Amino acid sequence: MESQLTILLPVAAVWLAAGVLADRLPRLRDARALRRRTGWLLALALVGLALIAAVAVGGLSSAGAAPIDRAAAGLALATCPALVVAVCSIRRIRRLRAGAGAFDSAPGTPAPHGLRAAAAHPLVGIPLQVTALATLPAVIAAAGTDLGAEPGITGPAITVGALTVATIAVRHALRHSRFIERAQPTPAARSTRAAGPLHV
User: Fold this and answer.
1) CA max distance for the chain
2) 136-162 mean pLDDT
3) 122-142 and 2-24 are packed helices; what angle lies between their axes, rounded to 10 degrees?
4) Partners of residue 30 on adjacent β-strands
5) 194 pLDDT exceeds 60?
6) Domain limits at 85?
7) How far apart, in Å, are the Cα atoms of 186 and each of 5, 183, 189?
8) Residue 30 domain-assigned (yes or no)
9) C-alpha closest to that of 113 among 99, 123, 124, 127
10) What Rg, from alpha-carbon coordinates, does the chain have?
11) Which of 51, 104, 186, 198 has its CA 20 to 30 A from that of 129?
12) pLDDT tens profile 42-57
């Protein structure tokens, strides 16, 4: 049991750290700080993916009920959101880091609302946080409390998990919409640009 928990704790810790960092990205107002934190987030996401892959490969190559087998079975729930991270989130995080890197030559430059809207995009934060959430049942089970084996707990646990995922998704969608609105030019600015060519 202890060996299984030793395997799962680093995986859960990396994904939880990535989820917290992704949640705080849009709050950064400095472009250089945004680029630095995005680099950290990219590193955490890649390490998290490598850890899940390593546990999965170890589970496949091992026979019997070894701790690595139980750890791999416990992380099966986190595999789907981790795949979404690999396919969607990594690419967006790289593009966000490249966009923030354009401001490296001007320290203290405020991060544009468009850049912060990209940091708040649901496909950046949601897959990371859902993956972190999906690692928790395996850690809880390895610690000695198997939610699936306890009568009367499985249903409420699934309901709480589904509600948590829905709350995360709605929160990210609303925050992304708010930053998108801020990134749009004001009506006065749009009318000035439209009228500009009319002036001689």
Assistant:
1) 82
2) 77
3) 160
4) 110
5) no
6) 2-186
7) 53, 9, 5
8) yes
9) 99
10) 21
11) 104
12) 999 999 999 999 999 9
